[in-house]
Amino acid sequence: MNSNFKIKPIVKTVIKNIKKLVGKLIEKIKSWGQLNFRGTGKPLAPFTDIITGILLALMFLESGLPKLLGVFLAFAVFFLSLNLLRIILLPFFKIAQKLSARSIYLLVELFLVLSYFWEISSGSGGDSAYKLSQVLAVFLALAFLIFIRSFYAVFRLHRKSPSLLIILTFSFLITAAGTWFAAGSGFSYPYVRNYLSIQKDKQVSGTEEAPAFGPLETTSIEYGIGGEEIKSRNTNLSSYVDYTGFSKKLRDFYWGYSIDTVPLKGKVWYPREGQNYPVMFIVHGNHIMTADSYLGYSYLGEYLASYGYVVVSVDESFLNGYLDKGLSGENDARAILLLENMREMEKDNNLKDNPLYNKMDFEKLTLAGHSRGGEAVSIAALYNTLKVLPDNGNIRLSYDFDIKSLIAIAPCSDQYRPSGRDVELKDVNYLLIHGSNDQDVSYMMGEKQYHNISFTGGNDYFKAFLYIADANHGQFNSEWGRFDLSTPFHMMLNTKNLISEKKQQNTLKTAMKNFLDATIKQDSEARSFFSDYNKLRSRLPENLYLNGYEASTLQNICSYEEDTDLTTATMENVSLSSLGASYWYETRLFYELDGPDRDNYALAYAWKNSLSSYYEMQFTLPYEEKGGFFQFDIMDDREYPKGQKKISPLDLTVNITDTKGETAHALLSDFARVYPSLPVITTKLQFITNSPVYKHYFQTVRIPKTAFLKSNEKLDLSSIKRISFHFDKLNTGNIKLDNIGFTD
Hints:
Blueprint: H1 2-37, H2 41-62, H3 67-89, H4 94-98, H5 101-122, H6 130-155, H7 162-183, H8 191-196, E1 218-224, E2 230-231, E3 234-235, H9 245-255, E4 262-263, E5 266-271, E6 277-283, H10 298-305, E7 310-314, H11 331-349, E8 360-370, H12 372-383, E9 388-389, E10 392-396, E11 403-409, E12 425-426, E13 429-435, H13 446-451, E14 453-454, E15 462-468, H14 501-519, H15 524-531, H16 533-539, E16 545-551, E17 555-558, E18 574-579, E19 583-590, E20 597-607, E21 613-623, E22 629-636, E23 653-658, E24 663-667, E25 678-680, H17 684-688, E26 693-695, E27 699-704, H18 705-711, E28 720-727, E29 733-743
Parallel strand pairs: 1-2, 6-7, 6-8, 8-11, 11-13, 12-14, 13-15
Antiparallel strand pairs: 1-5, 3-4, 5-7, 9-10, 15-16, 17-29, 18-21, 19-20, 20-29, 21-28, 22-27, 22-29, 23-24, 23-28, 25-26
Helix pairs in contact: 2-3, 2-5, 2-6, 3-5, 5-6, 6-7, 10-14, 11-12, 14-15, 15-16
């Protein structure tokens, strides 16, 4: 009791003294602020007016408005909204009654400036940089406002206190550095060059020459309901999009039509002479609705048409718009609009008086899509096989096109799920292309669709993916460009290390032509572009690529999808074991740390300070390989910090033993290069804080059976007893393995 009695007065005294100290400190700050910044509020308003107006103007201009109109509207909207806020706020807040209208005006403007910087940072991509970006954004905004006041106080009011001069100097330096930071393109991050140098003696050099145009003379034509040469009809999409409210009125006013009368519109590139060419429809994704996104694939249309393809780029801009939340999740409508355009072109192809008469062979049909369009083509392929809409059985579907192949360019996934299920497709060729520095679809979403394509074995199909280092989202479309976020949100993006638009588009042109030649024209040399590691890299611009390949002929020994037993394989009569591993287990894969589900299982395997660890598949009955290649997908999970140049390459030995005890081997590095996870930086702050996002993706390795026979010609591949992976080339490592088997 006595001790408590003594402590209470002491605590009260301490609290009282702290309050006094804080009070004195606040008074000193107020006094200092009055001495230095009194009368400096007025110059703050014009500067914030101008800056906020410019930011709004940039937004308006990016939406496609004429320059003068965009600038006028931006400032008009800005000043009108502020004065309305002043009128609304005054009656409701007591504090507002004590403040002048000008003070309220300044407070609102300060809030808007801070909000802009906050939005710029939080919308810039790269989760690890978000919080620091937001703190920096507020700090820069405050530094800028303090600089304006300090400048006015020193040079207009002639106040010369040392503390004010120090604040002026520091706020100027911070503002100047912040302006340079936001306005610049960012920082160079040459990890690609470092990775390529890992195995320089074995690296296949690419080409910097643009792919040459083909021998055919080409032309183009547009179709639509306006002044286009080919007249088309419109279609009703009201069953697929929830489209109501004020947003609908504004959009309908702009377009001149509504959701129930959307025109079928696009552009066609084709060889001037000849008939019955394979046809590819390509559809864009979401962007500013006033942009002519469908024209952004002209470079593809002109190039492919010169090699004997008809390319139709479908205009779906009516379904676009960043600010219209009522149109989110509209990818089923995108698929229907694509299918209706296909139906319209098929009709035009059969009309004798039409310029496109007999130009297209609809038995050799490919669908390609970019971004949301990349998901839409898979949905369209699904709808093409159905009689009724999965989400509404009262809506009948009557499409029956002969779709051979699908191409998805930086696609999204799961924005539409039929009846809450995945879009699962069978017996169709599929090509997935994605860039590592995509600042819109930040991970390879299409990998999920890749896994949801299966083959029944009745015909010859294949699927492949190409992951391109330092490629972004927008440069695949020449109308979208280098920034994957709109103004002013792109100011935090690090774009300096992106490959050029020309290089990115040349990569896409080469990949698409080879895929079309392989799947539509059955060109085996073109197909080897996807299955042969060296051919792919020699024909593409010099860069770092990861590629995957799976043919319908794959006999999958281990896909790791079947159960939770580590000792059993996908194929019967196979037992799995390991020796010397730090760990080995089957795991569900996710994109990045705590990212979305990749809808795939694989083996996680690690070893440490050992060259004798191995993973083995033992056949209880003799196994006869069927196919010319032993194939597996492998991922090097090591994460090297930014700037580390000394990197040990991943390598291993594959052993095959037959029932007579004859063993042959082959080295991974003789047939593919497998690189550590890619340390990708998409924001400037990630560079400063050294916090890249590591991209973990598979590389397919194909070893011809002749390589094993070269090692030991006595090996009997018709009676295999054991296949093993020996981690005897790298002292410590951690990997993932998947889809192990034999294939053509």
